[in-house]
Amino acid sequence: MASRRIISQEKTLLEKDDSIGSSPAANEKSNIAPAVPAAVIFKLLAFTFAMIVVPIGSYFLTVDNVFKGNSTFAGALAAIMANVVLVAYIIAAMREDQPDQEEKQQQKGSSRGEDKKSR
């Protein structure tokens, strides 16, 4: 036969207090920092805006002024400008990631140096 549990004496998940006892969350404060820095979000928004404005703007600026009504050449230029914005975003993202990679390499190098010194 199955044993019966007395439910009225047990605490529910919401009633349990993490600040008492040896739980991992007892002495830690919550980390409420955003997962992505604000500069990254602003850079993404700027490139999104550029991805919309630059190709459309280049089309309408050049269709009559430069290419004298030839929409094929103006459309090709708009496509090229969209690719230029995309490549610029990729380069900016790679440059942003380089300091992080260099820092990781320096940390690995310094930990290896300490290992050699301790021998």
Automatic annotation (TrEMBL):
Pfam family, one: VMA21
Keyword field contains Magnesium: no
GO CC terms of this entry: endoplasmic reticulum membrane; endoplasmic reticulum-Golgi intermediate compartment membrane; ER to Golgi transport vesicle membrane
Subcellular localization(s) per the UniProt record: Endoplasmic reticulum membrane; Endoplasmic reticulum-Golgi intermediate compartment membrane; Cytoplasmic vesicle, COPII-coated vesicle membrane
Membrane topology qualifier: Multi-pass membrane protein
Coiled-coil annotated spans: none
Keyword annotations of the record: Cytoplasmic vesicle, Endoplasmic reticulum, Membrane, Transmembrane, Transmembrane helix
Major localisation: endoplasmic reticulum
HAMAP family named among the record's database cross-references: VMA21
Function per UniProt: Required for the assembly of the V0 complex of the vacuolar ATPase (V-ATPase) in the endoplasmic reticulum.
Protein name in UniProt: Vacuolar ATPase assembly integral membrane protein VMA21
Organism: Lasiosphaeria miniovina
